[in-house]
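Quiz preparation item.
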């Protein structure tokens, strides 16, 4: 508050105590850390490529998360507090278009403010939870804006009201312009869609009662932060594989067949062959093969198909097409069961027609 007052007004009130609410919050956070119970965590991350147009009002994609434009006042306050957290090569904070602000209550049973179950036993777990929030937001923005809806993530500053500071989380590349990305626009109708995607994701995760979607989102987040085509493709196809291939056997066949069932509305003349080719590229790269000249486009395509597959699975769970309760939360097994059910229904219908 003192730094903000100096930045906003050019002066400060001497010997001023923080509001009583902040004192209680800091005390509770310190007690929670010592007793391994509920802790309060904040995190700030500058973003490049996510632009506010027309309506520059901040919006909240989910509870405890706010996205706001990187106005001069916002960034002056940001740098006044955290200038020592940046390295000389960091460019994203100094060219940020927006800032995402997290304010979360964490407990031994999870993030209370967003209804997710994760342990918070140490600083590494807290960083992982913060990263998961960022990955969910990136995914919802990508599904909203399409294949080019990717923006760059700067250093993530993490701390708590008691003065605790976590290690600055660096997942992306410090140089701006390292990713080929489209322009992600923050407009009223797009914010509504982003919020709706996240609400449906949480609804599906509550029914799922497993970490399958969380793991897929983690791979998607890594694919967003990666620069090399091979890394983007590997992370994307690994995420797809864990959602589509339930057991041993002809993995390429299952990968392409199950994927085409989830991506039935994808605008591709032959989605089965495309998925098969992506799986072959993943195998080649994983075993030391080299990138081809068109690998960058293929990698971005794989990342988009992962984002859309996650969305298709979310819709399938919420609408009852994917019966995850019967598979004890195993998404890939639920996809396999859905495909078999569809084939059987088609066979029965054909038999009746012939009769």
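Solution:
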């Amino acid at each position: 508050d003192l730094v903000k007052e100096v930045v906003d007004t050019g002066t400060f009130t001497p010997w001023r105590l923080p509001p009583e609410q902040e004192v209680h919050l800091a005390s509770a956070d310190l007690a929670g850390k010592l007793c391994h119970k509920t802790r309060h965590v904040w995190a700030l991350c500058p973003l490049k490529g996510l632009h506010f147009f027309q309506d520059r009002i901040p919006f909240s994609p989910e509870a405890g998360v706010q996205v706001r434009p990187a106005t001069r006042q916002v960034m002056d306050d940001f740098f006044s507090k955290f200038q020592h957290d940046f390295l000389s090569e960091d460019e994203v904070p100094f060219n940020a278009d927006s800032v995402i602000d997290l304010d979360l209550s964490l407990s031994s049973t999870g993030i209370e403010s967003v209804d997710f179950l994760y342990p918070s036993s140490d600083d590494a777990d807290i960083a992982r939870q913060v990263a998961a929030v960022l990955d969910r937001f990136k995914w919802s923005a990508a599904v909203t804006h399409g294949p080019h809806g990717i923006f760059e993530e700067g250093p993530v500053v993490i701390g708590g009201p008691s003065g605790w500071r976590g290690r600055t989380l660096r997942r992306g590349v410090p140089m701006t312009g390292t990713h080929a990305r489209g322009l992600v626009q923050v407009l009223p109708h797009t914010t509504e869609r982003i919020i709706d995607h996240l609400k449906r994701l949480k609804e599906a995760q509550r029914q799922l009662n497993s970490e399958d979607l969380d793991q897929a989102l983690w791979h998607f987040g890594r694919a967003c932060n990666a620069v090399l085509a091979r890394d983007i493709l590997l992370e994307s196809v690994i995420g797809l594989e864990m959602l589509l291939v339930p057991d041993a056997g002809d993995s390429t066949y299952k990968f392409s067949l199950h994927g085409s069932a989830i991506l039935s509305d994808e605008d591709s003349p032959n989605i089965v062959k495309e998925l098969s080719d992506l799986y072959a590229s993943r195998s080649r790269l994983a075993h030391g093969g080299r990138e081809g000249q068109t690998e960058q486009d293929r990698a971005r395509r794989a990342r988009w198909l992962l984002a859309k597959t996650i969305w298709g699975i979310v819709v399938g769970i919420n609408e009852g097409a994917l019966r995850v309760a019967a598979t004890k939360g195993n998404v890939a097994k639920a996809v396999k069961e859905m495909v078999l059910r569809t084939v059987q229904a088609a066979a029965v219908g054909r038999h009746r027609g012939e009769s």
